[in-house]
Write a structure and sequence with these properties.
By secondary structure, the protein is of the alpha+beta class. The protein is built from two helices and four strands.
Length: 124
C-alpha cells in the first residue's frame, strides 16, 4: 500500500510521518490488495478554538476494490491518528463480512436451485 501524507496547519515532522506510516501500514494486513493508495491528511482543524488545539486526522484509501474514508478530531494529534486507524480497520472488517455474507447467500441460492432441479428428476 502506498501512503501519501499531507499536513495542514502544522509542520510535518519526521516523528509524525513515522507514526502515520506505522499506523497506516498496520492497516495493510487487513486490506488484501497491495495496489491501494492511502491519502492521509493530518493537521490542525482551525486556529479559532478558544480552549486548546483541535487536531484532525483523515484517511482515504482508494484502489484494489476499496474506497474507504475515515476522519477523527481530537485534542491530541496522535490520539486522532489512532482513532482514525481504528475506524478504518472497523470499516475494512465490515466490508469483508458483507462480501462474505453476499457470497454465502449466492452459494445458498445456487444450492437451492440445484436441489429444486434434483427434485424433479426421476429416480430409477
Amino acid at each position: 500500500m502506498r501512503i501519501n501524507i499531507k499536513a495542514t496547519g502544522i509542520e510535518l515532522t519526521p516523528a509524525i510521518s513515522d507514526y502515520v506510516h506505522k499506523k497506516v501500514s498496520s492497516i495493510e494486513k487487513f486490506a488484501s490488495n497491495p495496489d491501494a493508495v492511502a491519502h492521509v491528511e493530518v493537521g490542525k482543524n482551525s486556529e479559532h478554538h478558544k480552549s486548546g488545539n483541535v487536531f484532525k486526522a483523515e484517511v482515504h484509501i482508494i484502489g484494489g476494490g476499496l474506497d474507504l474514508y475515515a476522519v477523527s478530531e481530537q485534542a491530541d494529534l496522535y490520539a486522532a491518528i489512532d482513532i482514525m486507524k481504528d475506524e478504518v480497520v472497523h470499516e475494512l472488517m465490515h466490508e469483508k463480512t458483507r462480501k462474505e455474507t453476499l457470497a454465502r447467500r449466492g452459494a445458498q441460492a445456487i444450492k437451492n436451485m440445484i436441489r429444486g432441479i434434483n427434485i424433479f428428476k426421476r429416480r430409477p
